[in-house]
Design a protein that fits this description.
Blueprint (H helix, E strand, L loop, with lengths): L15 H28 L7 H10 L8 H26 L7 H4 L5 H26 L8 H21 L5 H35 L2 H15 L6 H18 L3 H22 L15 H28 L2
């Protein structure tokens, strides 16, 4: 029996397939419906204008006015908290008759693993840059040209929104962006995709690797960005393995928050002319850097897994 056998799953009281579908529906309603309905009026006091123009613009073209940036952050943050944290926590209480503490307390976290986690993510950025460049420049066959045009338009729109939101005109706006882009998704998306779905899929398929890659697939698909699908899939799989080996959801939460937060921080420093490095570029690092990053990443993952085994044995 593997050292990690049965460590990942928690005692769900219901069918994994029913649980997975129910959770996704609950999160979808929270993120796409209830969250925005609450977030839009919460952002209204920070808009310099009347109510009708606020709702008209925020639903049609919020990027046309810098005064919408703060309301958009409030809207996005509220939707993420409700859809990926509050509703899943309530789902856990009323559907599974448990609390989300089960994701954090089954295996005590290790300081060694927490220290290794951001270093692994940082090294993996060099590896993933090759897939970022390949996926962003992917050209589809002629018979998929319609889909490619639609996907490109959606990608361009998403990039336009990203550029708009991550152009910080003050430290306060950077700090708010850091919370909304890094901290909240790090907690919420890991709770849903690693905490819930990966465990449900592990129980359903009896194969942790299938569970990790399927949850990573759903994680990437949720972002609805085809030309960034593969690097986000690989990143989700990395988070999944870090969770599986560590047994504590704090680890992938830290990894996810560090990945997003590092990017936001580099953008801010670039805008302040402190560094001259465009972290948001889709261009891959030089081949030599890619090879070195790959070697370092595999070594660090090996060490992480080794520490996890030792930590698990000591805490059984």
């Amino acid at each position: 029996m593997s050292t990690f056998d049965n460590k990942l799953t928690w005692s769900s009281k219901f069918s994994p397939s029913v649980g997975s579908i129910s959770l996704l529906l609950v999160s979808f309603v929270g993120f796409m419906v209830i969250g925005p309905l609450i977030g839009m009026p919460l952002g209204m006091p920070f808009y310099d204008g009347d109510v009708s123009s606020y709702y008209e613009a925020i639903l049609s073209n919020p990027m046309g006015n810098d005064s919408f940036k703060l309301p958009l952050f409030i809207l996005q943050g509220t939707a993420s908290i409700i859809g990926f944290v509050i509703f899943p926590a309530l789902f856990m209480i009323f559907y599974e008759r448990q609390t989300i503490n089960v994701f954090f307390t089954k295996i005590k976290f290790s300081s060694k693993l927490l220290l290794l986690t951001p270093v692994i993510v940082l090294a993996f950025m060099g590896v993933n840059s090759l897939f970022v460049e390949w996926n962003s420049n992917l050209s589809l066959p002629e018979f998929l040209s319609g889909f490619e045009q639609t996907a490109r338009a959606f990608e361009d729109r998403a990039m336009e929104m990203t550029v708009y939101l991550t152009h910080f005109d003050s430290f306060a706006m950077f700090f708010l962006g850091f919370i909304v882009i890094a901290i909240i998704p790090g907690i919420g998306e890991e709770l849903v995709f690693r905490g819930f779905l990966q465990n449900y899929l592990h129980k359903s398929t009896k194969n942790v690797h299938v569970a990790i890659w399927l949850s990573a697939f759903l994680f990437s698909a949720m972002h609805m960005q085809f030309f960034g699908f593969v690097p986000r899939l690989l990143l989700g799989a990395l988070f999944g393995y870090l969770y599986y080996w560590s047994g504590n959801l704090i680890v992938p939460i830290l990894a996810h928050a560090f990945n997003n937060g590092f990017t936001v921080l580099m953008m801010y420093l670039n805008q302040q002319s402190i560094i001259n490095f465009d972290v948001d570029s889709t261009e891959s690092v030089p081949l030599s850097y890619f090879i070195i990053s790959t070697i370092i990443t595999f070594f660090l993952v090996f060490v992480f897994r080794k520490f996890s085994i030792e930590h698990l044995r000591r805490n059984r």
